[in-house]
Every structure is written in C-alpha cells, then in structure tokens.
Amino acid sequence: MADYIExxxxxxxxxxxxxxxxxxxxxxxxxxxxxxxxSAVEEFARALIEAKQLIHECPICGNLTxxxxxxxxxxxxxxxxxxxxxxxxxxxxxxxxxxxxxxxxHVLHGVISPINGITPDKIRFRELIERAGDGSxxxxxxxxNPTPDGEVTAGYISKYLKPLGVKVTRLAYxxxxxxxxxxxxxxxxGRAIEGRRDV
Amino acid sequence: MADYIExxxxxxxxxxxxxxxxxxxxxxxxxxxxxxxxSAVEEFARALIEAKQLIHECPICGNLTxxxxxxxxxxxxxxxxxxxxxxxxxxxxxxxxxxxxxxxxHVLHGVISPINGITPDKIRFRELIERAGDGSxxxxxxxxNPTPDGEVTAGYISKYLKPLGVKVTRLAYxxxxxxxxxxxxxxxxGRAIEGRRDV
Lengths: 199, 199
Known about the structure:
Two copies of one chain form a homodimer.
Chain A: H1 6-16, H2 23-35, H3 38-54, E1 56-57, E2 64-65, E3 79-86, H4 89-98, E4 103-107, H5 125-132, E5 139-142, H6 148-161, E6 167-170, H7 186-194, E7 197-198
Helix pairs in contact in A: 1-2, 4-7
C-alpha cells in the first residue's frame, strides 16, 4: 500500500538512509510524522536544515560546534596543557559525560588503518603534532578505541610526540577490548581515565 | 557535549519524538544527518513537509493517500461489493502485501473500547454502516485485531450489519502457518480446533 502513497514512501526512504534504521522502522517513523501536528513537522524540518547548516568542526580541536569554537575550547577553565586524542566526536561526548576530564580534546576524525588505505595524512594527525609540539602541552592522553587500528594509531602518535618532550599516556584497559567507546558505561570510562598509563 | 551543541541537541530531540526511537538512537540519527550532503538534508526536510501536507484520509474508506482517493478505492478492478474492515492503515498495508484480497477497505481508525472511553461515535463506525447498507455491498469481512477490544468491535459491527442483509464474516483464527503447536497459546489452539475444516 505505502508503495502507492508516493510521499509516504519517499519519507520512509529518507528515514531508511539514516545509520542503523531498517525498512520497517523507517516506515514506522514515517507514520509517526503523519500523527504529528503540522507545526511540529515544520519544526522538525527546520531542525534538520539548521543542524546541517550551523554545525561545523571546531578549528582548534575538530570537535563539532555551532559556535565559532567548540564548547570545550571556548571554556577558559579547561586545562590547555592536557589534550585527549579521540577518534570521533561521539568519543568526546562519551568522555564529557563522565565529568572527570578537565583538559581539551583533539578529534582525529578516523584512525590510521593501512588495510583500509587510511594513512596519517587522511586524519587530523599533523594538526595534533603541531598543537602538541608548541611547548604549552604537558600531556597527551590517547583515547582511540581499543581496537587494532586504534592501537596502531596510538603507537604512531606516541612515536612522534615523545621526541617533542610531551608525556604520552593511553587510556587504561578498563574499557572492554574490541568494543566502541560510544557504548562504554560511565563508570568504566571513569576508571579508564583514572588509570591511564605511559606508552 | 551534544548538550552544548544546541542545534544537534534539538535535532536529536526531534528524532526522539518518533515512536520507538530512544535517546541513543536519536543521537545516532542526528549524527547521520551531519554526515549527509546538504542537498540530501534539504530533500529530507522537504519530504517531511510534503508527506505531512499531502497525505490525508481517503474520503471513501479512511485509508491514507496523497491523491484525491486512495489507490484501492480508485482502482476500478477492485470489488466494491466486498469490504474488509480494519483498525488502522497498517493493517491495510499488511493485507495488501498478501495480494490475495480483491475487495476494498474500511479503516475504522480505532476500535470500540469502553474502558478507554472509545465509543462507536469516536471511530469511523457510522460511515461503515452507511457504506455497507447502500445495497451494493455483498459481504463485510471484519479484520480487527484478535484482541478483546477487536472482538467487541467485530460483534458490534455484525449486530448492525446483519439486519441490513449483508453477509458478515471474520478472519479465521488458528495456529500461524510455520509455527509449532507446542508454542501456541491455549485460546488460539482452542479456536483452531473449533474452526477445523475437512481436508
């Protein structure tokens, strides 16, 4: 039936393009929209456009923001001598939730993965070296995911930063190996920050 | 973090309002949007607005459509003497998928449920009686869900239609095809025995 209601089908396809949304869920979401007030649907459409237009990478750390600099970089109380290196913005969100880390971030937007053709120049690696090597940074905590690629990336970063006199640490293996930071619970993540070690 | 990216938070809340979407999924969807091309996001926003503006109830059967009449009612090959009564549009979609039913539909948009204060005048009951009683309808198949409220509604409809000389039938109850008798509940099994047929 829905195949014959063109505009419903189109909307369902749009939901189906989102990560992790299957065909049945997409159709259920499209039906949900029909049950909303027209003004609410317009608000939804506006939120889509606005998020896409306003959100960009922070020029300092690569985190997402809809301001000039991200909320962490523009917070004067954060310790600029302590940089936490993460793979993506979701990891920033996870660590921020713990409210334990008082430094700033550096989002790589990926990890080095020779098998997938991702070399250091394809991620924000050079920016990290420049940032961490300017003399004001005491310590870099590498919080890439505990996966083989994450480990390789951590090792690579460490090799470049140590000669610059920067202390390099790695999140403790409190986080289960092979998982994704996004799904780590807050206690585990808190312990992992507490127990970080030299690499 | 996302709490501080206002436009991302807003978008995530919009997704979270959809039926069956939790907080984490909503945030993942919002991130998906950021990864889309700007033109694709605009298309998504347009699909939302268009679906809401164009889709309405078919004036004949109550099914959804973005045309004047729904695709079933406007299909001249469908048998107008045979009406299948369903609770909602999703049921129409399910039955259409089978490609076995050649009649038309009547969507009640609910079931009679005294406990929830849903009386016959709150669903499209009067419209059904008018439609089925105009002399051109041979049979009405009641396909409300096999729940207590669905049963009450079926009985109520039947009581009104039979005096009008319309044949009233109900979907057969029984064990689902491909299932195991061991797992069938007693009521279903009881109905299946009751409704047994010659082979």
